[in-house]
């Protein structure tokens, strides 16, 4: 009888004080991916959180007055609707995204911005803690467990950024991981996938904390592999990784004393120049890993090229600062001018390689345009523009290498190679210009251009055959181009 009374009392309590349910991870992941974090746009996500909070306050009639602002406190007795829990959750998300926005600044946060960043993370921890407490009182068991994982992650993020208590950060990240591992065993398939993905996102931060505590023999190369992973939970880890890599480069750069280029050796005395050149050379090695021409990998290669350009530009800036501050010692100035020329030439080479990669992407789109109706049509004029850039960059590189006195055989050979590539690019440009005229219905002009493109391709092939080490791939491409010119001319 007593048991029946207790059960009826529990039923009454459930009706008076209902238990709310929120799938926290699924809710946040959906909001993040739809509102900016798919592309790591924290500003857009922060604005979404602000707009979402405004709608929640208005729908609950929980506004803070029209006159003097007085924030209404959300307590256990206030939570009569699940939307009150959403308010607290989005307050934490807004503070966190604001902190991450500061972390994503191009040159990193300065001292003042870093203080503000930590303040926003503390605010995120405060709201996440309140969310966890309210879920424990008003949510069901699963919601309460997810809220505990959420607050543990926020606390770990704050400690991770503070660079102080690595053991506490490790404990919080591990707690969050353990909860998500447990939650990943239950629920629907979508929820299990999300939980497993979250565990994978947390793993690099845990391993980094173990590394800092001294309980792991993690190598820098392993850190780099983890840095290739994606996810909002990994962005702070990537920022730390950049610091680690900068320290490693500074140590490794001490062994680099000169820069070799076309038979010349130029001494490097400036430590910053050495670090920048070393960074660029490491990125150039990464390019060799992408052999296939998969569209996703091609985009990754283009992103690496941008980082290479940035590194070499930093090196040139340091060299030119040294030149401006150099004494009247002509030998020092000659060495710095030679180093500047060498770095500029390598930068020009990489620019041409990047533009050739862009041409590969554009050609694949141009050839598919008739088959893929949903894909943007690649016009021949766009390829003409890309070849204009290649011709200009090849000419500039040839002029740069040819400048100066006492050129060695390697420089002469390299300049001739640049001019030969320029001829190949002119043949390709002429072919796509002819395509453009043909599309516009100007058949006479198109016919003449196809003939000229074939003539340029044949001339380039003859010159390539006369070189010491002919590029067979380039010769094959020119043969295909010549055949296409003939076929297109006959089709007019």
Name the helix and strand elements from N-terminus to C-terminus, one letter apiece: HHHHHHHHHHEEHHHHHHH
Strand coverage percent: under 5%
Helix segment tally = 17
CATH class descriptor of the largest domain: Mainly Alpha
Strand order of the largest sheet: 1-2
- By CATH, the superfamily of the largest domain comes out as Signal recognition particle, SRP68 subunit, RNA-binding domain
Q: What is the helix content?
A: over 70%
Number of domains: 3
The CATH topology of the largest domain is what?
A: Hyaluronidase domain-like
Q: Give the structural class.
A: mainly alpha
> Termini separation (Å)?
98 Å
Characterize the structure shown.
A two-stranded antiparallel sheet has the order 1-2. The chain has three domains: 24-215, Hyaluronidase domain-like, CATH 1.10.3450.40; 256-378, no CATH class; 390-491. The chain has helices at 2-16, 24-34, 42-59, 82-103, 111-138, 141-162, 166-183, 189-213, 220-227, 235-253, 271-287, 295-325, 330-368, 380-402, 409-439, 443-465, 472-491; strands at 258-261, 264-267. It has 17 helices and two strands. By secondary structure, the chain is mainly α. A hairpin with a 2-residue loop joins β1 (258-261) and β2 (264-267). α6 (141-162) packs antiparallel against α7. It is found in: Cytoplasm; Endoplasmic reticulum; Nucleus, Nucleolus. This is Signal recognition particle subunit SRP68. Pfam families: SRP68. Keywords: Cytoplasm, Endoplasmic reticulum, Nucleus, Ribonucleoprotein, RNA-binding, Signal recognition particle.
């Amino acid at each position: 009888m007593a048991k029946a009374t207790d059960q009826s009392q529990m039923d009454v309590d459930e009706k008076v004080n209902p238990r709310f349910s929120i799938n926290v991870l699924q809710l946040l992941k959906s909001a993040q991916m739809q509102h900016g974090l798919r592309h790591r746009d924290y500003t857009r996500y922060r604005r979404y959180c602000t707009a979402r909070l405004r709608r929640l306050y208005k729908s609950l009639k929980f506004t803070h007055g029209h006159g003097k602002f007085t924030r209404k406190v959300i307590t256990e007795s206030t939570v009569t609707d699940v939307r009150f829990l959403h308010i607290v959750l989005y307050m934490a998300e807004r503070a966190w995204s604001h902190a991450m926005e500061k972390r994503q600044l191009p040159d990193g946060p300065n001292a003042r911005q870093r203080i503000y960043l930590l303040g926003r993370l503390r605010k995120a921890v405060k709201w996440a803690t309140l969310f966890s407490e309210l879920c424990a009182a008003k949510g069901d068991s699963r919601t309460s467990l997810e809220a505990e994982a959420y607050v543990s992650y926020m606390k770990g993020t704050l400690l991770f950024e503070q660079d102080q208590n690595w053991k506490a950060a490790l404990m919080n990240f591990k707690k969050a991981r353990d909860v998500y591992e447990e939650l990943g065993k239950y629920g629907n398939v979508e929820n299990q996938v999300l939980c497993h993905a979250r565990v994978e996102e947390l793993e690099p931060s845990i391993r980094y904390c173990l590394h800092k505590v001294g309980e792991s023999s993690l190598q820098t190369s392993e850190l780099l592999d983890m840095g290739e992973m994606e996810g909002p939970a990994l962005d702070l880890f990537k920022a730390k990784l950049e610091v680690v890599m900068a320290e490693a480069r500074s140590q490794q750069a001490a062994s680099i004393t000169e820069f070799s280029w076309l038979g010349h050796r130029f001494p490097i005395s400036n430590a910053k120049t050495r670090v920048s050149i070393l960074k660029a050379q490491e990125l150039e090695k990464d390019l060799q890993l992408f052999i296939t021409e998969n569209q996703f990998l091609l985009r990754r290669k283009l992103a690496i090229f941008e980082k290479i350009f940035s590194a070499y530009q930093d090196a040139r800036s340091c060299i030119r600062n040294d030149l401006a501050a150099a004494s009247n010692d002509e030998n020092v100035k000659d060495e710095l001018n030679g180093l500047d020329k060498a770095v500029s030439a390598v930068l020009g080479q990489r620019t041409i390689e990047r533009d050739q990669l862009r041409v590969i992407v554009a050609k694949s789109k141009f050839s598919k345009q008739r088959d893929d109706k949903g894909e943007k049509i690649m016009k021949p004029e766009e390829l003409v523009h890309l070849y204009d850039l290649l011709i200009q960059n090849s000419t500039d590189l040839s002029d740069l290498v040819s400048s100066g006195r006492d050129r060695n055989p390697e420089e002469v050979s390299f300049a001739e190679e640049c001019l030969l590539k320029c001829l190949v690019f002119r043949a390709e440009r002429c072919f796509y210009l002819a395509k453009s005229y043909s599309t516009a219905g100007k058949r006479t002009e198109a016919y003449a251009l196809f003939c000229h493109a074939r003539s340029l391709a044949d001339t380039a092939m003859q010159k390539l055959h006369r070189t010491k080490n002919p590029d067979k791939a380039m010769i094959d491409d020119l043969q295909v181009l010549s055949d296409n010119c003939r076929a297109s001319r006959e089709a007019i």
